[in-house]
Amino acid sequence: MKTFSILGTGWLGYALACELKDKYKIKVSIRDEKYREKLKKENLSPFLLNEENLDSLNDLLETDYLFINFPPSKFEDYTGFLNEIYSHIKIKNIEKIIFISSTSIYSDLDLLFNEEFVLKNSKSPKVYDAEVLIKNRTDLIFRCSGLMGYNRIAGKRSSAKIVNDKDVKVNYVHRDDVINATLFAIKNNINGIFNLCVKEHLTKEEIYLFNSKKYGFEKSIFKDEKGLKNRIIDGSKIENLGFKYKYSNPFDFI
User: Fold this and answer.
1) pLDDT value, residue 254
2) What is the pLDDT of residues 108-127, one digit of tens each?
3) 57 Cβ partners below 8 Å, 6+ apart?
4) CB count, 10 Å around CB of 138?
5) Which CA distances in Å does 29 have to 23, 63, 86, 127?
6) pLDDT tens profile 43-91
7) What is d(CA 253, CA 48) in angstroms, rounded to the nearest whole number?
8) CB 170 within 8 A of CB 210
9) CB half-sphere exposure, 147, CA atoms < 13 A
10) Burial of 209 (0-12, 13-18, 19+ CB in 10 A)
11) How far apart are the first and last CA of the chain?
């Protein structure tokens, strides 16, 4: 049985671990000890890994597949932390390295963005700097749009709050589709950079009102603010290789 290491076992990483644990020996990183026993009971092998404690890298990087999924906002020195991982002697022996990035790497412009877009003024410099560091040492990079599904319901956090960008179109992807894209890429030995985003781009007002009615939370207070950018993410490149999104419309996410 091959080994699959997941660095960053949060909302996405944990779901991926549960999906894979019958097919692989799963190693997972944890930021603190409080989840250790829970993960062990689920036949996962947890290792403490954070900016202050890198001792477990030797064990975590003894693997066939490596899935890296850390939110940049959780780190004081995100690129420094990634550099510790990519500088480890065992990294070169890994069969496939998968890195979860974000479509926030693209500029804040009224454009349709695909993977061929030349990156200059990134909306998120942290994400941009991370990709510059890792892209030539990583087999597969998924630039994910806003992750939704299950307990993540678009508009719920904005219930009864003012939303100024009601007509801006949203770029979302369901968690299941990120997991399915990972499985698809492994099965078909796909490498490169891929956006992950649904085909339908609703406005914030459309999806927020739909979800507030469906799930019974208070509607947002929408303001009409002009001049906001519509950044549209094209997630079709992976479809051209045969992948099919399970969810193509945010109305169907929950």
Assistant:
1) 78
2) 899 999 999 999 889 999 99
3) 49, 84, 85, 88, 90
4) 21
5) 19, 13, 16, 21
6) 999 999 999 999 999 999 999 999 999 999 999 999 999 999 999 999 9
7) 33
8) no
9) 20
10) middle
11) 34
**How many angstroms separate the Cα of 38 from the Cα of each of 32, 103, 120, 132?**
12, 32, 43, 36
**In this structure, are residues 115 and 237 in contact, taking their beta carbons and an 8 Å threshold?**
yes
Q: Using CA atoms, how far apart are residues 22 and 221, in angstroms rounded to an integer? A: 46
List pLDDT tens digits, range 193-240. 999 999 999 999 999 999 999 999 999 999 877 666 789 999 999 999
Structure tokens at 130: 């991370």
Q: Which residue has the tokens 């781009």?
A: 201
Sign of the dihedral defined by the CA atoms of residues 204, 103, 139, 5, in that order: negative
Residue 103: which pLDDT band, with cuts at 50, 70 and 90? very high
What are 227's two structure tokens? Answer: 């001049």
Tell me what the pLDDT averaged over the chain comes to: 95
CA distance 193 to 183: 15
Task: List phi, psi (to 5°) of 125.
Answer: -60, -30
